[in-house]
């Protein structure tokens, strides 16, 4: 049983499922659309996971960067009629550049100050988008963002093709995340999260490492935002709202902050939960809010972290008690 | 000149509200080291309770405020007991997330119970008074007077009573306070109660001017954070100075720069300040 359920098989099964999924629901645009939105949010949540989960800096400006990505693509493709792929690239680059500037300043602050600072920057981005009528269309938003341009014979007119496009980006994002976390750089981030002073003592340049981690996380948000804009074809200032970043945070916490599969698990779970609770849309936070609080108190590592804890207990390998986060290293060593 | 005086007065009103909210926030931060994002939810509920008590029972505005203060103070204590106390030994990221969960919950709850409409709070203080060409409603004067009295009483309480002294002791040195036998739980509960009471008072005072609606806590809490950071986390005099400063800046900015961008002024101010001094203007170093 344990041998069939090893990590590689699970991942393979999931990927195959994701690939076959549109064939099952080929004529159901709604299901595909929800799935695609879920994937896009998951990309963004992976970004958040890198900076908050692994490097330990809670950035609440994430929705702002998501919006910068979305608006860059939207403005470039509608006003300037730029090619989608070029606009996508520029959106990611511009978001990263904005992240670099903010990171340089914001990362001088620590812990609570950083969270508050980024929360306020995020809100400021929202206000700017809302008020800067000339550039962003203000409250009316941007309408008629085109679908991605075809690459050779590949066109992106159907819901299925968009699904595959976003899936490809999601897999790429997860792959990059995994590579980062399992590399020396990833260990460095975890060291910073566990104790910045200790990391410094070990000779780690925490400033540069935090900055790089922040910029990568912001690039994820920019990519997700740009994809979101071309999928929904309409964006308003709401994409930058604090509720958006709180949603990302909720997906991350419930899925498992500081784990590699947590963002995907949390996002897909909530995206579908929200669909099932659609008739109570305004009130679903009545349940989600307390869930968030309870998760943080009782299962701070989320569903995925909890799963690994139980698994470890069954194998009589206790995780170190003082570590409140899930540590991905022991999991890797059991693979051999 | 009259316009200027009018704006000074408006700034004082705004600043008084910010100060009241920010003092609650800064007290909790100074003692428990929690940036309580859920403070805005306390403010929100404070406004609604006052409104509902007045509407349903027809009692005087002041009695409704008193009821609201009691309810929200109790809510603050509950919050401390049920959420922040169990999290006291967790990594700092966790209580922020829990606070965000609380915000989401309370906002949805308020919408469920009282709906999403903007509501007016009618008080006995809506008559106009004119002094030296500056016209003002007596509600605005009330805001300033109550804020001054409250801050004065609170300072007396913190300086002259045993409970107040133990709160200050814990803010200054946690371990030291434990050593001399101060009950940490009691102090934490007390702090949350005061913080909730101040939020309720501020909301009840500001609502007749600003209307009551489910998102009313958003801007106020963000600006209170601005005030707390400018004033130095945990410092009450800092919160007073910074609160008034922010109120003035906003009121002047709205008149002389742009009304559309007035909310941005506060946040830009903070970004500039934190860029230059990452720990705030008057920070003595976090305790």
TrEMBL record, chain B:
Pfam short name (any one): BPD_transp_2
PANTHER family registered for this protein in UniProt: ABC TRANSPORTER PERMEASE PROTEIN, BRANCHED-CHAIN AMINO ACID TRANSPORT SYSTEM PERMEASE PROTEIN LIVH
Family, per entry: Belongs to the binding-protein-dependent transport system permease family. LivHM subfamily.
The keyword Secreted appears for this protein: no
Presence of the UniProt keyword Cell membrane in the record: yes
Membrane topology recorded in Swiss-Prot or TrEMBL: Multi-pass membrane protein
Protein name stated in the entry: Branched-chain amino acid ABC transporter permease
Main location: membrane
């Amino acid at each position: 049983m344990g041998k069939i359920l090893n990590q590689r098989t699970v991942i393979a099964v999931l990927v195959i499922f994701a690939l076959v999924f549109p064939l099952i629901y080929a004529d159901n645009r709604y299901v595909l659309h929800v799935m695609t939105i879920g994937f896009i949010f998951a990309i963004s949540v992976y970004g958040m996971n890198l900076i908050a989960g692994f490097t330990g800096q809670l950035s609440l400006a994430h929705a702002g960067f998501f919006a910068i990505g979305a608006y860059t693509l939207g403005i470039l493709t509608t006003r300037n009629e730029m090619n989608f792929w070029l606009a996508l690239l520029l959106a990611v680059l511009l978001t990263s550049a904005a992240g670099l500037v903010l990171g340089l300043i914001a990362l001088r602050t620590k812990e609570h100050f950083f969270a508050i600072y980024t929360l306020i920057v995020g809100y400021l981005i929202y206000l700017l988008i809302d008020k800067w009528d000339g550039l962003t269309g203000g409250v009316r938003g941007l309408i008629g963002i085109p679908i991605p341009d075809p690459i050779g014979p590949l066109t992106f007119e159907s819901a299925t093709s968009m699904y595959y496009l976003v899936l490809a980006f999601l897999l790429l994002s997860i792959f990059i995340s995994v590579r980062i976390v399992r590399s020396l750089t990833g260990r460095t981030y975890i060291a910073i999260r566990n104790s910045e002073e200790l990391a410094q003592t070990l000779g780690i340049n925490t400033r540069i490492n935090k900055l790089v981690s922040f910029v990568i996380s912001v690039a994820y948000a920019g990519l997700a935002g740009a994809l979101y804009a071309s999928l929904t074809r309409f964006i308003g200032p709401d994409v930058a709202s604090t509720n958006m970043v709180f949603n990302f945070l909720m997906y991350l916490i419930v899925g498992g902050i500081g784990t590699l599969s947590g963002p995907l698990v949390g996002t897909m779970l909530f995206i579908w939960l929200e669909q099932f609770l659609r008739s109570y849309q305004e009130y679903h936070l009545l349940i989600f809010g307390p869930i968030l609080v309870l998760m943080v108190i009782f299962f701070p590592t989320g569903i995925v972290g909890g799963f690994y804890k139980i698994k470890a207990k069954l194998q009589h390998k206790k995780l170190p008690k003082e570590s409140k986060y899930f540590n991905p290293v022991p999991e890797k060593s059991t693979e051999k | 000149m009259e316009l200027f005086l009018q704006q000074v007065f408006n700034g004082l009103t705004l600043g008084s509200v910010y100060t009241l909210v920010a003092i609650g926030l800064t007290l909790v931060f100074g003692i428990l080291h929690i940036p309580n994002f859920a403070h805005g939810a306390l403010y929100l509920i404070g406004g609604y309770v006052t409104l509902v008590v007045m509407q349903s029972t027809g009692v005087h505005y002041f009695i409704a405020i008193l009821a609201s203060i009691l309810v929200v103070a109790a809510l603050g204590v509950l919050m401390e007991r049920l959420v922040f106390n169990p999290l006291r030994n967790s990594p700092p990221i966790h209580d922020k997330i829990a606070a965000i969960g609380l915000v989401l919950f309370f906002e949805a709850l308020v919408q469920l119970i009282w709906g999403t409409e903007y509501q007016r709070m009618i008080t006995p203080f809506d008559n106009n008074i004119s002094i030296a060409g500056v016209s003002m409603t007596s509600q605005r004067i009330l805001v300033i007077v109550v804020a001054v009295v409250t801050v004065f009483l609170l300072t007396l309480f913190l300086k002259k009573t045993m409970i107040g002294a133990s709160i200050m002791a814990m803010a200054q040195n946690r371990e030291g306070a434990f050593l001399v036998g101060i009950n940490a739980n009691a102090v934490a509960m007390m702090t949350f109660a005061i913080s909730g009471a101040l939020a309720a008072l501020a909301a009840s005072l500001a609502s007749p001017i600003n209307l009551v609606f489910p998102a009313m806590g958003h801007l106020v809490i963000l600006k209170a954070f601005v005030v707390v950071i400018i004033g130095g986390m945990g410092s009450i005099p800092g919160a007073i100075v910074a609160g008034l400063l922010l109120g003035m800046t906003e009121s002047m900015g709205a008149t002389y720069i742009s009304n559309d961008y007035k909310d941005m002024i506060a946040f830009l101010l903070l970004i500039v300040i934190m860029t230059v001094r990452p720990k705030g203007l008057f920070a003595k170093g976090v305790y």
